[in-house]
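Hi support team,

I submitted a single chain yesterday and got back a structure, but I'm not sure I'm reading the token output correctly. Could someone confirm the output below corresponds to the sequence I sent? I've pasted both exactly as they appear in my results page.

Thanks,
R.
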Amino acid sequence: MLLRFRVANHRSIRDEQTFSLIATPRRGEPRAAKPLRVVGVYGANASGKSNVLAALDWMIKAIKLSHTRWEPAEGVPRQPFKLSPTGPGTPSFFEVDFLHEGVRHSYGFEADDRQIIGEWLNTYPSGRPKKLFERDGAAEFSFGRSLTGELQRIRKLTRPNSLYLSCAASNNHPVLGAVHASLTQRVSFVQQDHKDQERRLLLAKYLLGDPAFTVVLNTLLRAADLGVEGAEVIEAPDETKFKEFAEQDPEFASHPEFEAAFRAIHAKVVLRRSSSEVRLSLDEESAGTRAWLSLIGQAMLTLRGRGVLVADEIDSSLHPLLSSTLIRMFKDSAINRHGSQLVFASHDTTLLGSLLEEEILARDEVWFTEKDDAGATSLYSLAEFHPRRDENIERGYLQGRYGAVPYLSFERIREILMEGIEQPR
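Hi R., thanks for writing in. Yes, this is the structure output for that exact sequence:
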């Protein structure tokens, strides 16, 4: 589980920003670090809320791919703040605090365009920091006494532009490999673009092949009141395409599992409508139906595996009641038995209020982004404003009480249009 994320000099984030996923203790409660299960980020268009999630995504991908995918001679493919002359020359900074095997860990690194200039991993088994390793510059390393294994061999294999944690996982270090897996295998990202949705629909198709998942997915489809009775996978083999592929790569086609894999990939998901026996393919369904099916499959895997689901524009093509249902799934301890987390960005202000007289998001579960005159993003929590328990958060946000909303003067827009549009004669 994630506890805190810090970032500086990435896209619109110029100065260091801290994103906390730890619950704010209520009056009389102990100040224990209790992870939040849901956190939402709000802000005006182009305020940087997506960049906060993208920064976490970039960090996770760097941990996963820097040793195996980054070209040795091409430096670090970072994305520094470009709206000031110092941005490209200033290092980028990333740090995440998380729970691994029930113990708090803190991992981070700094990088410029050429190389990693700092990297560290600490653990807190008894509340105090305990160093596992630290890197100062591209090649200077120090290791804690508790960390054993082929540390020096891995150090020699670590390139200036790759992360030691990435290299250690690639070389099967048992301790660092497990930490690496906690970050790279349990955190998944949802982008609202066609390619990513197709990936998630492919995942849903895979899950529909499992009878246990099929029951739950179909129940959630019916409960969404989309007019869909259920989904199923049907084989739709194109024999001509199958033969063409086999002729192009006969060696691959000779594999005993080739035909089964080919047919599974080319199988189709069809949905049964409640009012008809006719089955429609996903391509014939509405954007809302496709969005819901693609999200609930990813959410089910996250809930099942003690993971973190990071979703940009969670409200895209979804009715507010569906978005709120997804949030409530993660907040419900009976459903979310492993404490999985949902982190999302949204414009849907109804989630800030009460739907069906039930609070969706608590004060410490809401964060805002805002840009200053220089185009730099700042990130802050609703809890910093200490709103009253009975305060209408949705109305206050739209009125600009907490910032993070665009300033629009309709009167000024009206004046411009009246002056600029030629009046009919």
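A quick pointer for reading it: The first strand starts at residue 2 and ends at 8. Let us know if anything else looks off.

Best,
Support desk
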